[in-house]
Every structure is written in C-alpha cells, then in structure tokens.
Amino acid sequence: MPYFFFPSPGLLSKGISVVLKKMPAACDSVLEDIEDIVSAQDLKPHDRQFVRKNVFPKVRKRSSQQSTQIDDDPPSDSIIPGVQKIWIRTWGCSHNNSDGEYMAGQLAAYGYKITDDSAEADLWLLNSCTVKNPAEDHFRNSIKKAQEGNKKVVLAGCVPQAQPRQDYLKGLSIIGVQQIDRVVEVVEETIKGHSVRLLGQKKDNGKRLGGARLDLPKIRKNPLIEIISINTGCLNACTYCKTKHARGDLASYPIEELVDRAKQSFQEGVCEIWLTSEDTGAYGRDIGTDLPTLLWKLVEAIPEGAMLRLGMTNPPYILEHLEEMAKILNHPRVYAFLHIPVQSASDSVLMDMKREYCVADFKRVVDFLKEKVPGITIATDIICGFPGETDEDFQETMKLVEQYRFPSLFINQFYPRPGTPAAKMHQVPAAVKKQRTKDLSQLFHSYNPYDHKVGERQRVLVTEESFDSNYYVAHNPFYEQVLVPKDPVLMGKMVEVNIYEAGKHFMKGQPVSDARVYTASITRPLAKGEVSGLTEEFRHTPRNGTNWKAHPSAEIPVKTSFSPWMPSQLPWQQEGSGLKILSVSLALLAVLVMVYYGGMKTEL
Fold first, then answer.
1. What one-character DSSP code corresponds to residue 532?
2. What is the residue-wise DSSP string for 137-176?
3. What is the 3-state secondary structure (H, E, C) of 303-339?
4. Over 70: is that where the pLDDT of 568 sits?
5. What's the pLDDT at 451?
6. Phi, psi of 410 (to 5 degrees)
7. What kind and span of H or E run contains 443?
8. What's the average model confidence in pLDDT over 536-550?
9. Which of 128, 368, 538, 563 has fewest C-beta within 10 Å?
10. What is residue 62's three-state secondary structure?
11. If you average pLDDT over residues 84-106, what whole number do you get?
12. Are 201 and 137 in contact (CB under 8 A)?
C-alpha cells in the first residue's frame, strides 16, 4: 500500500513535512477524485468552523513587576530625542574644558536643555581627565552615582579614550576626544537605550587632524573668554604621562582656521582668548609652520582692549623661538605670562621622565624671558616623588624654587598611571612622596610674590567672578589676579585700579575714580548659556550627515534624526544606485527560493 505525504506550507518553512498513516482498504483502489479520501466520519467544513469558535487562546500570565518595567521603559522608537535635560561635568585642563563647551553647544543647538542641576537631568555627560589618580577616582564615583540614580550616561575625555576596556566602563557609551562633533548622535542613541562608542581619529587623506572643526556651536562657561585648542597631542613620550595615550601625537590646526575662530569669538563679545593644547610650543611642526607665526597672525586680529593668553609650552620647543616669543610677550594685547613645566630640577630624574631637556635649558628660557620681558609671570609644574628620585634630587628642586620664587607653582605628588612606563619603575615610598610634597608646599607658601606691588596703579581686564562671589576677578598685563569691587559696570571692562592689598595668590585693587573705563568687547557678549557659532552655514547646510534646521520653539538649529552609522548619503540617495539595489534584491530573492525548495526536496 502506498503512503501519502502531504507537505504543509507552514511546516515546510520550518523544514518539516507531514507523513500520513497508511490509508484504509477503501482507498486501496485508484482514486479518481481527491475528495474520495474524505469519509463519512470526517468533519464537514461547517463543523470545523464551529469547533474553531470554541477554542480559547491561553493567556500567558505576566508578573506585575515585569509589567511595571515595560511601562517604565518604553521602546526606543517611542522616545523623542532632543527634549531631555543633560548635565555636563568636566575635569582637567583648559583643552578639556573647551571640548566640554563644544559638546554643550551642539547638544543645546539640537534642542536638549543643558542643566546645572544633576538631579533633574535625564543624562549625565562626564568629561574626564586622566592626568592623576584622584581625577579618575572622581570620574569613576560619578559614573557609579549616575547609575544608582538611574541616569543615562555618556563618557568623554581622556580616561575612556586611553583605556576604553576598563571594567567600570563596560556597556556605557563613549565619545572619543576627536569625535566630539558627533556628541548629538551618541547622546541620542544612549537615550534610546543603546551603547555607542566612537573612538576613531580625524584624518584627511591619511593625515591626522587636530580634531573636530573649530566653528562648531559651543556654550562658553564664561561668555567673555574663548578657549581655542591650537593643536592636540604632542611630540614627547614622557614616561609618567597617560594623556599621550588619549591625545596621541601632535596634530595642529591650520593658522587660517584658528584666526577665523578668534575673529568669530570677538564678534560674539569675547574680550579674552586662551590658547591651549598639550604643548603649545610644538604647534605647527607637523604642518610646516611654528608658534610665533601663528601668534603674529592672531595679534593682528585682536581688537584694542582684548587680551591673548598663551598656554603651556615645554622647554625644548620654545628654546629656538626665544627672541620672537619675547617680542610677542611684550605686545600690549598679549599677557606677559608663560607656563613652562620643569617637573624636576634633577637631570637624572628628567632623563628617567624622558623630558628631552636638562635643568640648564629650563633656566636659560626663564632667564632670557625675565630679562627681555620685564615683570613676566613664569608658572611651572613640579612632580614630587617620581620613581628613583633621591633626597639629593629633591633638594635640587627645592633650590630651584627658592632661586626663582615662582608666583604660580603647581605641585603634584606622583601617581603611577596604569599602562605608563613609570608605573613599572621602582616606586618611592608613599610616606616619602607625601612628605616631599608637604615640604615643597611649605616653601612655596613661605614667600609672598605680590607684597612689593601694593601702592601701584595697574591696568586690569575684568572677566570673572570670584569663587566666594564677593569680588570680580581681573588680571593685569602679567596675568596676575586682581580682585576688584563687585560692580556690574566693571564686568568686561578694562579699568585702572590702585593696589591696596596683596595676598599669596592675588592682589586687591580699587578702581581709580578719574580713570577711563574702557569696554574691551567690540560687541555685546552673549548671555550666559547662549549658544555661540550659529552661522548661516549651520542653519541651512547639511554637513557630515547632519541637517541643521530651525527649531520650532527657538531660533536655534536642530539636527534631523540620522543614524551615526550611516554615511553622509544613504544608499538610495547616491547616484546610480537604483540598478545596484535591484540586482541585490533579485539575488537575495533567488537565494530564498533555493533555500525554500532545497529544504522541501530534502524532506520529500
């Protein structure tokens, strides 16, 4: 007797066929009609319909806890990005602060509200510093606090860029130091519940760039001060430095872009510019120029009353430009101030640090500038307890501080940073490091650098409010801090004051009644929290997959929804792509047909 196989289309799709039992004797004869198979005992169509109506689906029970979780966590498609509140916290240097300002500006331009209240924020953007252990500890604790508060988290800065695989960073969104122009996309995906990591480098024809564009929207913490990063990375390989792992090798911005950024800042009411980078002295060596060339171009763009402050430079790269640097630092619109880290006054320690200079080089720079730029302020850094530092080495450092009596001295106890060569060296005992830090701090506080200036009449630029909110903070031509009365008329003004008191880190000045108060800004400064850099280009021109348009509730641009993994044009928007898509579709259909019938043949 034959067996009858009735393949079910629904089951065939799962690779299953149905085999019927051997038919009864009544079917042993040849069938002329398929309906002859149906016997009198089989259900009629009407009966089948009646039975179907009496079948009740089984409802799967769901716990109330699961139901609550589903209600609280809607699908990502139902979340509207661009309306949430974001709290931004930045640690570290002025370069990092500039990055934070750019990220805040882009998020605000998209429609997000930047809040100072971490408790009311939906998402925390934590912009980290990797220089010392305490800074990373604060960063790690903030992540834990955010998670405990059920906040969405996006991480930025040097810590996740240098070590993105650390356990406490797992599952969290990260935006790299050169990808800050894509912060909106990362935040958008994070709010939807996704984890996104963008850690790549900006390149043009294979050449590494300085970073994100300088003309992006930003929110300045101080509307009167513009921080401009002139380059990222450096040429050194200091054995204690973790920042190198994050910022990489030197990559400089072109001079014209930096000058344009400065001009734009002045048009927005800025009256003071800070130039920053990991090493300003190395600027331009990768693009065939140098720091003095940049500075002379910038000086031409600075309006009367506005000031320029130079950032940190290491001794090796300033030595060959001493003459030009002295001329620039004597310019009336440039602060006579320079930050030159020495780190140690022991040549053997400097060699272990791979600092690429000796103590004599540092002294030559300082002595030359003090002679050619009268009154110049030299700030420096010192590390206490570097591996291998002996008592004799440390005493050499003490003598250097005693000799120069630096008015601004950054004292750092050595912390071994993971992954650095110095972390593997023989460490100085913690108690010794602590004592050396204490001894150097006592020496620094034993002298008052400003006592001799009491009674002087100085010209100062007022730009900030003091931490205790009792004074306004101004700076004289040597970038020395002068506290003045908290009179709103003085903010953003160049005024003359009489110095009547001096402290360790500041002087106090009283405005001269008959002196002219000069407005440093060429136009009204932006309001605090207002987004800068909103040019017509950002309002109307699509750039790198970002379409800026007018926000329905405010005169700020907003990006239309766009996936961070898509190119600037979607496949169907690209020229000549129709035939390609048709070909791919037909090929895919052919594969599906082959799989379907191949499975059917196998079962039969």
1. B
2. HHHHHHHHHHHHTT-EEEEEEHHHHH-TT-GGGTT-EEE-
3. CCCCEEECCECCHHHHHHHHHHHHHHHCCCCECCEEE
4. no
5. 96
6. -100, 110
7. helix 430-444
8. 41
9. 563
10. coil
11. 94
12. no
**3 state DSSP class of 440:** helix
pLDDT beyond 90 at 533: no
Residue type, 299: V
For residues 286 and 277, is the Cβ–Cβ distance under 8 A?
no
Contact 384, 394 (CB under 8 A): yes
CA distance 228 to 261: 8
Task: Give the CB-side neighbour count of residue 558, counting CA atoms within 13 A.
Answer: 15
Asked whether 409 and 447 are in contact (CB, 8 A), the reply is no
Residue 597: pLDDT band with limits 50, 70, 90: low
Q: What are the strands of the beta sheet with 408-413, ordered from one edge?
A: 337-339, 377-384, 408-413
pLDDT at 420 over 90: yes
Q: Which amino acid is at 59?
A: V
Q: 203-204 and 207-208 as β-strands: parallel, antiparallel, unpaired?
A: antiparallel
pLDDT score of 266 more than 60: yes
CA distances 530 to 89, 100, 549, Å, are 18, 14, 18
CA pair distance 48, 424, nearest whole angstrom: 80
Q: How far is CA 163 from the centre of its chain?
A: 15
CA–chain centroid gap for 85, Å, is 18
Q: Which two tokens stand for residue 313?
A: 């430079």
SS (H, E, C) 187-214: HHHHHCCCCCEECCCCEECCEECCCCCC
Pairing between β-strand 85-90 and β-strand 408-413 as defined by DSSP bridges = unpaired
Position 511, amino acid: P
d(CA 318, CA 250): 16
For helices 430-444 and 391-404, angle between their N-to-C axes, nearest 10 degrees: 20
pLDDT surpasses 70 at 218: yes
Give me the phi and psi of 214, to 5 degrees please: -80, -15
Q: What is the rounded CA–CA span in Å between residue 171 and residue 435?
A: 40
Look at the chain and count its residues: 604
> What's this model's pTM, rounded to 2 decimal places?
0.76
**Contact between residue 490 and residue 462 where contact means Cβ atoms under 8 Å apart:** yes
Token pair listed for 214: 């300088």
